[in-house]
Amino acid sequence: MSGGTIIVCGNLTITSMNFNAGTFYINSGFSLNFHTGGVNMGNATIVNYGTVTATGNITMQPVTFYNAIATSTFTVSGQLTLNNSSLLVNNGSFSAGTLLIQTSSVPALCLGTNSQNSLGSLFNNSDNSISAPSGNACIYVSTQTYLNPASLSTSATLQLCQAPTSTIGGPGGVGAATVYTNCIACSASLPVELLNFDAQLINRKAELTWETETEINSAYFSVQRSQNGQDFTEIGQRVAAGNSSTLLNYQFTDKDPYYGVSYYRLKQVDIDGSYVLSSIRTVYNAPLELISVFPNPAEDNLNLIMDSPRNMDIQLALYDNLGRLIKSEKIPVKTGFYSVSMDISTLAQAIYRLKITTEVTDEQLEYIFIKK
Prior knowledge:
By secondary structure, the chain is mainly β.
C-alpha cells in the first residue's frame, strides 16, 4: 500500500503487505489483523475505533497510531518498535510482548486518562518518551524495564506497575513517573494515595513535606537521598498511619543536604514488605553565595561579600577577555556573611572575569567587572 485510505467495516485479516503510505480507519465493532511474521510501516496513519492485532512484530518508521476511544484495543504479540517520529496515542487498551522506543521526537507514547497498557518488556532509548498529559495512566510490565540512557517521562500522572518478578534497570531514570513494585495489575489497589510531595531549602536545611489521602496497610515511609539522582540511600523514616481515609500530613528535615543539588524520594513500605517509590524532588544548596561585588568599575580594590555555609578555603581566579589567567589566590572564609577585598591596582584597564571556586564542589561563581 502506497497511499490512499482503507476503511475497515468488517473483520479484515492481512497476511502479506508493504505499508509505505496511506491511512487505515477501523470502525467501532470491527477488527484489523496483521497475520504475518512482521510488518514494516512508514509514513502512515492508523485510526482505530475497534480492534487491531498483530501476530508478529511491527516496526513503525514513522507511523501515527491513534487508539481513539476507551474501547479501542491494540495488541502486538511480538515486538512493537517505534522509530523516527512515530507516535502512539492510546486512549483505550494497548499490549505488546516488547515495546522498543527509539524515536527522534517526543512523546512517542501518549497515554489518555485511565488508559490500560500491558507490556512484557519495555526498552526506552528516547528522553521523556512517554507522556500522560490529561490524568493518571498506567503501564504494567511483567518482565523487565530497561532505561537507556534517558529519562522516561516528565508526567507525574504516569504510573509504572512492575510485576513481582519484573526488573528495572539501565543508566536512565523514570523521571517524574511513580514506580509500583510487586504490582499485580494496573487496576490493583494501591496501599497509599500520595497527594503531593514537596522539598524546599530553608535556612540551608532540606524541608520535606508530603500528604496522603488514603492509606491501606501502610507501615512506614523511608526518606531517601541521592547526589546524582540515581543512587539513593535512606536518611530517615516516618511511621505511617496503617489504615486511614483522612488527609494526613508528614514532615522530615534533612539537616545536612549535599552542597549543590540533592535528590529526594519516598519509599512507601507496606506491612507485607511491598513498596512504592515516589517521583523525585530536588533542592539546591549553594556551596557559596555571592551577595555583592563592588565597585564596578573598580580602580584599586574589588570587594566581595559572600554567605558561606562553613569555614573553608575559596579560590579566586582572574581572567582577561581573552580567557588568559591573570591572577589567582586562595582565601579562607568563615561561616556566615564574610567580606573579601582583592587588590587590582596593578591591573591594566580592561574587562575582567572573576571566577570563584570552593573546596566542597567544582561549581564556579562568575562575575564580570571593569578595571578603570
